[in-house]
Amino acid sequence: MLTNLKFANFTAFEKLELSFSPRINVIIGSNGTGKTHFLKAIYGLSLLAGSKYPDRSDEGFAATASGKFLRIFSTEDDRVGTLASKGAQSPTRLSLVSSDDAAVEVTFGVRSQYLEFASGASDPKPSDTPVYIPTKEVLSLVRGIRHPKHDRATVEMIFDDGYVNLAELLVQPGSDEETTGSIEDPRLSNVIRKLVDLVGGRYRLRDDGGFNFEPGRYEEKAKPKTDPSRSESQTARAYQDSTQTRFVSNGSQSFPTGMTAEGYRKIGVLHRLLSNGSINPGETGVLLWDEPEANLNPKLMKEVVQVLLELSRNGQQIVVATHDYVLLKWLDLLIDKKGKEDHVRYHVLQRCEEDGQMSVYSTDDYGQLVTTGISKTFGELYEAEIERSLKGIEL
Length: 395
Description:
By secondary structure, this protein is an alpha/beta fold. It has a domain at 2-130 and 285-394: P-loop containing nucleotide triphosphate hydrolases (Rossmann fold, 3-Layer(aba) Sandwich), CATH 3.40.50.300. The protein contains 11 helices and 15 strands. Strands 7-12-13-3-14-15 form a 6-stranded mixed beta sheet, with helices on both faces. Strands 2-1-4-5-6 form a 5-stranded antiparallel beta sheet, covered by helices on one side. Strand 5 (103-108) and strand 6 (116-117) form a beta hairpin. The longest helix is centred in the last third of the chain and has 22 residues, at 373-394. The model is unreliable at 235-239 (pLDDT under 50).
């Protein structure tokens, strides 16, 4: 579980420090304020923190780790110094701390080729490996990214490692792809069913490495009495040990992923990650999602927010970046601080008009977001609508 993050002289950030909510964190800012750089830095540091290597001071590790970090940002450069703030007079420093006091801290200068690791930093558990979902959907790209006939160097020039790493996670087999098609984890049953209901089916891996969309839905049925996992006790029934949730096709023919809406594919990505255990609340690392609202019908945003809240209630730490008013407002309306102990922390990125430097302020109160560009824009729209209505009355 991530607790604290610090930047110094990193890209547009001269200085930044914040603490994370253990549940949901929302990074807010207009275009060009560094939201994606923020997420990628967390992702890169988390990956480096989980790396296993006998000696972090060894140059071989520094070269490998630096290359991995750079590919996340797709800098087209082989020097980490390109990520330093322009004109920085002191070294760039990035630090990420977890709840068990494990930390990863790196430094580099504007001319540095490799990252330097702080000697006091320790390794988090391997289970802290993060999951990063980029703005563009990836399901339709998986076959091209992983195709054995495609030159790896060319693929990495086109797609940063956020896409490449996610493609590898998406092809992992899911528990619901077996013959039974059942959901093994009862905590995720409602979440997975909701995601499939939103798009009317699921995405399944083909033999050629691509995906097909299979129309259908999940249904809850009683386990056969011969099933050894079934119990007739009252306690077992209370925990749904006597039932199973299975995917049932509606009989329609499957069709290629590219023939479905891009917004549906984004929901399909989340379903795949949950069903194959790449996201396992309480066991895997932070979920980082860049602009969930991109290419998604606003009508679906309420259900997506409900899914995020349910995952956080089961122990999944989440960080999303957005500039979407609909997503923010549904979080405000659906949060249940008392009954479900929901918690959302908003981190607002702002650029100073005088020197162009970025700053951040964090709040747990949605009402404090009235000064953001998002709120101002929607306020202007509302005022313009009222003004037009009043002019109509005057006529």
